[in-house]
Target: Omega-amino acid--pyruvate aminotransferase
Amino acid sequence: MPTTLNTDHFWMPFTANRQFKSKPRLLVAASGMHYTTDDGRQILDGTAGLWCTNAGHCHPKIVEAIQQQAAKMDFAPVFQMGHPLAFEAASALAAIAPEGLNRVFFCNDGSESVDTALKIALAYHRVRGDGLRTRLIGRERGYHGVGFGGIAVGGIAGNRKHFGPTLAGVDHLRHPLDIARNAFSHGLPEHGAEIADEFEQRLLALHDPATVAALIVEPVQGSTGVILPPKGYLQKLRAVCDKYGILLIFDEVITGFGRLGAPFAADYFGVMPDMICCAKGLTNASVPMGAVIVRQDIHDAFMSAAGENAIEFFHGYTYTGHPLAAAAAIATMAVYKSENLFDRAAATAPYFEQAAHSLKGLPFVKDVRNLGLVCGIELEPVAGKPGARAFDAFLKCFWEKGVLIRTTGDIIALSPPLIIEPGQIDQLFTAIGDVLKEQHAASSTVA
Ligand SMILES: Cc1ncc(COP(=O)(O)O)c(C=O)c1O
Model:
């Protein structure tokens, strides 16, 4: 690290600040599948940054689009004004979205996309004269960003406990992770679809379905360690929502843009939500941007409810549809298409799956779960030190093996750029396997 770097002032998000600053892990450049560190090492990116650089880093066409736009028009308001790129970006996104979801509300990240979708859901019922529907249902271990709406429907204790009661009228489904029955599943787990029945049998029975506005779920729960929906589970949630007029929101902030080998998880599962939240891969993470993709008739309900020249929806951000983000999104959609990256991810997924499951039987590995280009490796924790084993693996991977992995608790979560090659998949899983063996050897020596 350059000795001149002062790390005091940046309060880092979701980071053990003191640990980091005692030996900073600094990235200074990126290209394709790799980062370059400040000490000149190449690091294979096993996490697409944070589940976001799906087309690989610094894609030249995306870089060029941003550079050109920055020189042409830096900013234009979209409150009572407009600029063409915002409309073009919305059309490009609608073109790859599931049929019928074709109205796009832009924001700046995943958290804002979630809060926007929740507000659309509440307001939609109200503009239709169904204002009793004010309850929102999320899921345990769900991650929906860090806005107050997102942490309310989210199900991660650490993200909620310091911040008071958040939103009223929220409840949560049980998450479907069941290692006892589903360990080392290849793809979707066999067991657990019946957990979806609790939505109707417990939550709706308790609250009265007529008071529920929306259910929000990640089709694949990512941030809390890759929790896959059991076979038939999402279909059941959709059926219950249909039965009671409840909107189904898919938070596809990580599953969108080819992560499962299809444009969206909705396409992969053949389950159509009423709204999709997305961000990250929308611009290949080159410029912050999020969006909610909305069923047309939901949008149209707002249009027909408001008077002439009246604002139909009192919501928006200064940077909604920002020109740089819009230019990046248009270029990113074009890259996904011209390079056929979603199909490429689907074609790579079987190799990735085999490599992931090669870790079965290695020390501490209690589950491997995978889908598309996502994999979770759950480790036995060190007694009395939750998270320590995986965090140590993360550090060793970074400093000694030249690969970037991500951990949450004692789960390693992998989500490489969709351009990953078989040899790089081997490098990634070999590095993790070697680290686990070394950890085991060290713990045996200590014992
Ligand atoms: C499913 C999901 N929703 C929302 C978010 C929040 O996105 P952001 O960090 O861009 O606000 C994330 C971030 O990882 C996510 O995984």
About this structure: The chain has 16 helices and 15 strands.
